[in-house]
Amino acid sequence: MNNLTSRANVILANSLSVLAICTGMLFITTIHVPVTPKFDFQVNNAVVRYRPDHLSGRRDYLDLAAFDYDLKVDMSESFHWNVKMIFLYLVAEYTNEDNTVNQVVLWDKIVMREDNPHVDLKNMRTKILLL
User: Fold this and answer.
1) What is the pTM of this model?
2) 87 has which bridge partners?
3) pLDDT digits (tens), the chain, 131 positions
């Protein structure tokens, strides 16, 4: 009745129960951690250009938008024991006649725990012109 396999089964079952309880307690410690990053975004020097579309083969014209922007983000309060990295990205969302919603990623960065959690960008230019 108390052979080796039954003893191993008891040890394994108790170990898994303790690990499950520890995992649940760890989940409870981070479920209600408020994350409120401080940020400031400002658009500078917005320009809309009216250029011919050479790629479509038709004699159409496109509205191309470009702008400079300043971005300040403080992610220092977002890092705790369970966060190793945060993926930051800035998205421009606009509408035109062809599509209801267009979204373009203007800037992105992966912030690691060891890196500086403060992002301070001045006069950044868009890499892609917005149609």
Assistant:
1) 0.64
2) 110
3) 678 899 999 999 999 999 999 999 988 887 777 778 888 888 888 777 777 777 777 777 777 778 888 989 888 888 877 788 999 988 888 787 777 787 888 888 899 988 888 888 898 887 776 66
**Alpha-carbon distance 131 to 62, whole Å?**
7
3-state secondary structure labels for all residues of the chain: CCCHHHHHHHHHHHHHHHHHHHHHHHHHHHHCCCCCCEEEEEEEEEEEEEEECCCCCCCCEEEEEEEEEEEEEECHHHCCCCCCEEEEEEEEEECCCCCCCEEEEEEEEEEECCCCCEEEEEEEECCCCEC
